[in-house]
Amino acid sequence: MTDPTEDLAERAQKVPKEAGNNLKREIGLFDAVMFVAGSMVGSGIFMVSADMGRLLGSPSLLLSAWIVPGLFVLCAALAFGELAAMYPKTGGMYVYIKEAFSPLWGFLQGWTMFTVIQSGSITADAIAFARWVGVFVPVISDTNYIVHPIHISSGYAVSLSTVQALGVGCILLLAWINSKGVKFGKIMQSAFTTINLCTMLGLVALSLLLGWSKGSGMLNFRHFWEQVPTVTEVLPGVTVFTSRLALYGIFLLSLRGSYFAYDSWANITMIADEVRNPAHTIPVSLVAGTSLVGLLYLLCNLAYLVVLPFPQIQSAPYDRVAAAAMDVLAPGVGSSLVALGIAITTFGCLNALTLSGSRLYWQMARDGLFFPVAARLNKNSVPGWALAIQAIWAILLTLLRTYNPETKRYGDLYTDLLSYVTLATMFFEMLAILAVIRLRRTRPNQPRPYKVPGYPWVPLCFVAGAVGIMVALLVFSPATSWPSVLIVMAGALVYWLRGRMGGWAPRPTQ
After folding, report:
1. Where do the TM regions start and end (predicted)?
2. Are residues 16 and 375 in contact, defined by beta-carbon separation less than 8 angstroms?
3. Packing angle, helices 29-40 and 182-214, rounded to 10
4. Which of 280, 267, 297, 301 minimizes the C-alpha distance to 34?
5. CB 460 within 8 A of CB 69
6. Which end of the chain is more exposed for a tag (fewer CB within 10 A), N or C?
């Protein structure tokens, strides 16, 4: 029987030739910054402010709920810079956790990424892209079925609507493009991210220039600190008005929306072997990219407040706050412009997720913690098999549907899964930040080309924020939080079974 915690270097000499590290360093500083920003900017910034507004009930709290996670992410980016400089190789968070704690914890992070977080995000962006395209092409609709739902149980079904078909097409297209070499993925990512950032700047500029006269949001600044009565109960009888403790807890709970918009900020660390001078480029790109996006997110929410009265932000149709704001500024065409911008944004984010996720699974396979075939590079020096496995799983998540027998309505399986893993996402990011502190103690002589400024307070700032958000999730949203624990426990079972069966592949250190 293979010991699951044995030293990964013991069988390094047995690495098959096809698993060798022949990745090409094609990504420079500008491309890295665009990759960080492009991984973060999806559809969230254009929509989640509505739900956050319903929870918080005031303009001041809404803006604060975007500033606070922005500062958390900046602290995390500064800390990750030290880890990336110490271990400038593909895998990112998985590598840091594995090196600081154990292969088990590294595997659990990678397991959660593959089963839900990364694959679910790919599916979510693919479906979001298709739905926004449906604004212009009505035949692309959730109710226009190519294959009507086939029930596989009382609560689940498989279907293929035109929205799902376009989503599947996007997943396959980007897997194919990225299989042609990192240069192609890099060029596409930089181009789409530039368009995305220009779209956001255009929305902000138009809102700040015209919103004061065309919009009616001036009331938001006259009553900046006042709370409106229309707020959401997180538990029966519990709102931000219930008590000061409830206010603090609900504020932390609301950060799940803004933090979701910031998510994927560390994806650049997953592709370190394809970054030029990674020990310098990755830390700089992390800080620059997260700072840029954080500023744009704050300006976007300021733009919403300039144009829309707060109750309209709370009640925006389908939570499309950006579309509601643009309809005020450019009646008749505003929502269409936003739909086009979001479609482009989600496609760019989908490309970044596709590229980075495959590299994580490639590294895991080289460590004997994923399917062995995923350790192979194709003729273009990219992990083609890892791209294929990732695409297949994301497509399965796209086709599977949830079903409510009472309402007779279908939902998206990936939506439930993503809501279930918010707690796990925060936990593993916190664990990676704690790796900075642990490695300072266990490997004090390891070269550190870059050290996090303000140590240990900067890493601990993120840890404190993560703990607060996780506690709020467990208290106010237990139904969608405890499944995170079950998903991670399932990963621990898989890891144990892998050890019982002698592992999946030779386990190199590189």
Report:
1. 27-48, 60-80, 100-117, 156-178, 190-212, 245-262, 282-307, 337-362, 382-400, 420-437, 457-476, 482-498
2. yes
3. 60
4. 267
5. no
6. N
Which tens digit of pLDDT belongs to each residue from 200-241? 888 888 888 887 776 666 777 777 777 777 788 888 888 888
What tokens appear for 279 in the block? 């020990």
Is there a domain that residue 436 lies in? Answer: yes
Q: How far apart are CA 263 and CA 70, in angstroms?
A: 11
Residue-level length of the chain: 510
Per-residue pLDDT band for 5 (boundaries 50, 70, 90) equals very low
Q: pLDDT, tens digit, for every residue of 251-271?
A: 988 888 888 888 888 999 999
Tokens 């499309």 belong to 320
506 domain residue, yes or no: no
Range of the domain at 478: 27-500
Average pLDDT, rounded, for the chain: 86
By CB atoms closer than 10 A (0-12, 13-18, 19+), residue 218 is middle
| Closest residue by Cα to residue 428 from 204, 196, 269 | 269
- Segment 295-316 shows an average pLDDT of 91
Asked whether residue 140 carries a pLDDT value surpassing 70, the answer given is: yes
Q: How many domains, in total, are found in the chain?
A: 1
Taking the C-alpha atoms of residue 377 and residue 15, their distance in angstroms, rounded to an integer, is: 13
Cα angle for residues 470, 98, 359 (degrees, 5° grid): 95
- The CATH number covering residue 94 comes to 1.20.1740.10
Q: Does residue 14 fall inside a structural domain?
A: no
